[in-house]
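Below is one such record:
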Amino acid sequence: MKFEIDSEITLRKLEIFLAFIQSGNISKAAELLDTSPVSVHRALHSLEQGMKCQLFRREGRALMPTAAAALLAETAREVIDAMARGISLTRAAAGISSDRLRIGSLYSLTADIAPQVITQLKARRPELRIELVLGSNDDLLDKLNRSQIDAVLMGIPSGEPHAFEVVPLFEDEIYFACPADSSQPLPDEIDLRDYREADFVALTDGFVTYHGFLEAFRIAGFTPKIVSQASDIFSLISLVSAGMGFTLLPGRVKDALGNRVRLVPLAPRFRMRQTIGLLFLHAREHDPTLLSLAAVCRQIWRQR
C-alpha cells in the first residue's frame, strides 16, 4: 500500500490547525493547547507547505482560512476523532483502563437509575472520576460510536445491536399523559383514536420516547397535531402540566411528576414497552472499568 502523505502533515499539526480554526486567533489557539504563539504559527506554516496549497490569506495582521482550509478542517476532525477512538480501543483491548469514565444517559434516567448506577459503581471503584453526559438516544449513540463517551444508559435500539455489549436494566411502559387538574373525564384506558382532534406536545426527534410516540399513532391510524416540542423530558412534562397538550410518557418519570401530570394506561392495542439498558462498544468488552459497570447493571436488573 502506497502512502502519499507529506511528512510535514502530522496529527499534532492537525490538532493545532483545528484549535486555530476553532478560536480564529493564533494567541487563543496557543492558550487552548498550552503552547506558544510562535509554535502555532510555525505549525500552520509547515502544514500549509505539506499540503502544497494555500490554506490561509492575510487580511491586515489577521490570518484568514481559505475554502481549502475549511475542507481540511472537516477531514482533520474525522482523523483526530478516529485516532482517539483507535487509541481508546487499543488500550481497552490491552486491558488498560482509565480512572475516568464518561457515562451517557437519557434525561429521564437522571431522577432514579443513573444516580443508582453511579453510586453503586463508586462503591466498587472509589477511584473512578465519573462524568455524566445527557442527550437523546441518537445523540448518545453517535457519541458512543465516536468514543466521546465510554458507555450509555438508554433505550436499547430495535434490531440486533451487533457493535455493542448490551446489559438490560429494566422494562418500562408508555402511558398517556394529561394535566392532573384536567376537568375532562378520562377512561381507565386510553384509545388514542378518540384524540384525533386533540393537541399534543412531544419530544424532538432522536429520543426513544418520541419514536414510541410516533409508532403509537401509526397504529391509531392518524398523525397527531403536535403544537410544541421539547428537547428534554422534564420540559415536556412542564408543557403538559401547563395544558399545552397531551403526550405519551414512560412510567419511569412518575416520581418527577408530583401532582402536575396524570398518567393513564393505553388501551391494549396501543401499549408498548421500552427496554432500558447499558450499552458499550463490543471492542471494549474486556475493559475492567466497563466490566465493573456491567456488573452493577446486572445486579440492578436482578433486584428490580
Q: What stands out?
A: The chain has two domains: 11-93, 101-304. The chain has a mean pLDDT of 88. Residues 173 and 273 are 4 Å apart (CA to CA).
